[in-house]
Each structure stands twice: as C-alpha cells, then as structure tokens.
Amino acid sequence: MTIQSDVYVIILITIVLAIAMILLSKKINKVDPLEKPKGIVVPIVLATEAVYKTVRTNVGKKVADKLTPYILALWFYIFVSNTISLFGLSSPTANFSVTITLSFLTWLMIQVAELKYGGFKAYMHAFLEPIAPMLPMNIIGKFSTMLSMALRLFGNITCGSIMMSLVYMGTANLSNALAGLVGIQGTVFNFMAPIIAPALHMYFDLFAGFIQTLVFVTLTIVLLGNDIPEEEKN
C-alpha cells in the first residue's frame, strides 16, 4: 500500500504549526503584561484580540475563553493549508478527508452545544418537527452542515489547484510555440510561467485561500453561537 504525497504534506504542516505555536506561546509567556509589546508579539496580540472579540460577540465571554484557542488554531491551519501551494506543495485542503475532518469537529461541537443548552429531550424531539414524517429529512439536515462546509472548502481549493495546473500547461505550450517561431524546436523551459502565473497565484492561492479560511471559521463561530441561549452569552 502506497501513501499519498498529501499525507506527508498534512503531517509536515501539522508538525510545523505545532512547533511554531509552542515557541510563540513560550515567547508570549515571557512578555511583561505591563510593558508595550514589540516584535512578532504585536501582530499575534492584535490577531488574538480580533478573533476573541468576534468569538465573544457570537458565543459570549464564558464560551469564548475556551473556544478562542481552537478558533485561532483552526484559522492558522486552514490558511496555511490553503496557501501552501505557493511553495510548490499540494494543499491539504484539496483533500476531502482533511476538510470533512475539520467540518466534523465543527459539527460535533454544534451537537454538544445543542445537547448542553437544549437538553437531550429537546434534541431528540427536533428530529420530529414540525411533524413525525419529517424524520428522514431532519436526519439529513442534521448532517448537511458538515457536508456543505467540507465540500465548499474542498471544492474551492481543488478548483484553484486545477486552474493553476491548466495555467502551467498553457504557458508551457505557449513557451514551446514562441520558441518555435525563432527556430528552436522541441520542448523548452516554461519561460512564460513566471510572467503569467504569479498574478494568478495571488488570486487562486492567497486571496481565495484567505476568503475560504474566513468563511469556514466564521461559519464555525456563527453556527455555534446560534445554539447558545442569549442569557448564556451575557
């Protein structure tokens, strides 16, 4: 049995991010809270505060204190996975097993929130609303959020990867055609790729990767917030 190259990239990103977070947390712990932050601590503090405020607005302070570290880790993991193709590696989020796993974690937290704040009886009764014959549709609807989030992230990142593959195929053919015009026969270096591809990488990898990260993380926060009563958020 052979292991797909995607698996090595997934393991690499996980290890690198884990080491980076450990080192950054140690650096932040050494910072004096009474002093003005400087260096790499500044963007980390600003990003953490921005994410915490967003999470607190949707789920309340009590839950935000526990949820924010996960949201930060989720944000960095998905963003790095979406944009790693800029360095010639395959994007882990172009692998459906990765996106369905991330979506499952969000779905699982939603189910826990529904059970915790609504109770087991209300959770089970929701499958029979508004009438009992709706049970099959309600069961499908219960899993539709997980599937839609996974497919949205997987589809957009995969589409970007396919588009860039087509771009490189096109620039290779264009390079050969231009070389043929000056009398150079055969396959030549794809010299048109560095001219055309960078701008498209900025869109398909960087911009689209950021947008898809934002969408996935925002949906996670909002969907969780919808199942937390308002009195728990105050």
* Helicity range: over 70%
What's the average pLDDT?
Answer: 85
Radius of gyration over C-alpha positions, nearest whole angstrom: 23 Å
Could you state the order of secondary-structure elements as H and E?
A: HHHHHHHH
The profile of the biggest β sheet is: none
Number of helices: 8
Instruction: Please tally the β strands and state the result.
Output: 0
Shape descriptor: flat
Estimated structural class: mainly alpha
Q: Strand percentage, roughly?
A: under 5%
Unreliable stretches (pLDDT < 50, length at least 5) are none
Distance between the termini: 53 Å
Question: Overview of this structure, please?
Answer:
This protein is mostly helical and 234 residues long. It is built from eight helices and no strands. The longest helix is centred in the last third of the chain and has 47 residues. The radius of gyration is 23 Å and the shape is flat. The model has no long low-confidence stretch (mean pLDDT 85).
Question: Nutshell version of this structure?
Answer:
The chain folds into two domains: 30 residues; 137 residues. It has eight helices and no strands.
List strands and helices in order, with pairings.
Elements (H helix, E strand, L loop, with lengths): L4 H25 L11 H19 L1 H23 L12 H23 L1 H6 L9 H47 L11 H34 L3 H4 L1
Main location: membrane
Family: Belongs to the ATPase A chain family.
Membrane topology: Multi-pass membrane protein
